[in-house]
């Protein structure tokens, strides 16, 4: 199943806010950083490290 990246970011953000209740700025920073890294040249390197 192929899920668009923007949809996955929205779902993870919503669940993170509902379950953990972190500060809003921390959620925004992590989601934006993750989204930017996923489309950068660092994505293949991080993919091998996280597997």
Can you give a write-up of this model?
Helices cover 76% and strands 0% of the residues. The protein has helices at 5-20, 24-38, 43-50. The two termini are 19 Å apart.
Key terms for this structure?
0% strand, 51 residues, mainly alpha
* End-to-end C-alpha gap: 19 Å
Quaternary arrangement of the chains shown? single chain
Q: Which ranges are low-confidence, i.e. pLDDT below 50, for 5 or more consecutive residues? A: none
Number of helices: 3
Biggest sheet layout:
none
What would a concise description of this structure say?
The protein has helices at 5-20, 24-38, 43-50. The relative contact order is 0.12.
Describe the secondary-structure layout:
Elements lengths: L4 H16 L3 H15 L4 H8 L1
């Amino acid at each position: 199943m192929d899920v668009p990246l923007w949809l996955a970011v929205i779902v993870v953000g919503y669940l993170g806010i509902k379950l953990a209740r972190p500060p809003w700025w921390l959620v925004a920073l992590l989601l934006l950083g993750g989204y930017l890294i996923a489309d950068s040249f660092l994505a293949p390197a991080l993919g091998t490290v996280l597997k």
